[in-house]
From TrEMBL:
Residues 1-26 form the signal peptide. CDD domains: S1-P1_nuclease. Keywords: Disulfide bond, Endonuclease, Glycoprotein, Hydrolase, Metal-binding, Nuclease, Signal. This is Endonuclease. InterPro entries: PLipase_C/P1_nuclease_dom_sf (IPR008947), S1/P1nuclease (IPR003154).
């Protein structure tokens, strides 16, 4: 599958030279790699051995950006359906939810929660093919990161901040891009440096992060987005960076720790510290 994936990415790059998308990607490449790298530091040896065939010679950090790289690829799934996997919207006053019927195949997934659960089910299904599990691991790593970017649970009417223009040190951008890329890149760190700086071995903090579920993650993001909408002006600068970079770092840290906890829960029941506290909607509904 590795050669097929590389060929697909090459094709996607050719296609992207002709077609452009208005959608911003959560966290940008570095942000997703940071999440993958933090997770690598916390998955158990059993989990590492189990997912090795699904990684196909790459790392969690390397595969974390694949779903974004493929969004310009030809084919109905990538052109018309895959974008729905990356975000979720909820009407004011209503909670986030997903339809279990939509998680039965990748074509029917309609939001990020359904994408996470489809990927979980595929990875634990003994009847799933190797290709399907490689696809699902790539998406799962990516979507856990997406679920922690506030504007992937933002307002539908402004497309998660994509339609809100802001000026970042006189550079025109939008609120979504500001959060997924600009605030991360402003630290001037490689993804490995960033991951090392925000990583934690605080067992109490880890346990706190893991007392959650994918639904919790998007609810947290939605609540953050609601606050950010209110205090973001047309121009952002040093004070905005000072006030919001800690939030970015916390969300990336949480995403990495929770991704590790999720993978350990799926593949290593003996991984006590990173598994026992995590609660999944999947277990709650079975």
């Amino acid at each position: 599958m590795r050669s097929n994936i590389k060929h697909s990415i090459f094709s996607a790059l050719l296609v992207s030279a002709v077609f452009t998308s208005n959608n911003s990607y959560a966290w940008g490449q570095n942000g997703h790699r940071i999440v993958g790298k933090v997770a690598e530091l916390h998955i158990s040896e059993t989990t590492k051995a189990t997912i090795k065939p699904y990684l196909d010679g790459e790392s969690l950090a390397q595969i974390s950006t694949w779903p974004d790289e493929m969004r310009s690829a030809p084919g109905e799934f990538w052109q018309k359906k895959s974008s729905r996997w990356h975000y979720i919207n909820a009407a004011p006053g209503k909670s986030f939810s997903f339809n279990h019927e939509h998680t039965k195949n990748k074509e029917s997934v309609s939001n990020i929660l359904e994408g996470i659960h489809y990927s979980m089910q595929t990875l634990t299904d003994t009847n799933s093919t190797l290709d399907a599990k490689q696809f699902s691991l790539r998406f799962l790593v990516h979507l856990v990161g997406d679920s922690h970017q506030p504007f992937h649970a933002g307002r539908g009417e402004d497309r998660g901040g994509n339609r809100i223009k802001v000026s970042f040190f006189n550079e025109e951008t939008n609120l979504h891009s500001l959060w997924d890329t600009k605030l991360v890149e402003n630290e001037n760190l490689s993804f490995t440096e960033y991951a090392q700086f925000i990583d934690t071995n605080n067992s109490e903090l880890i346990a706190q992060y893991l007392q959650s579920s994918p639904k919790t993650w998007v609810e947290e993001s939605h609540n953050l987005a609601t606050k950010i909408y209110k205090y973001t002006n047309d121009e952002v600068g040093y004070s905005y960076i000072y006030n919001n970079t800690p939030i970015v770092k916390t969300r990336l840290q949480q995403a990495g720790i929770r991704l590790a906890g999720l993978l350990n829960a799926l593949f290593d029941p003996a991984a006590k510290e990173l598994e026992t506290a995590l609660v999944f909607e999947k277990k709650q509904t079975n």
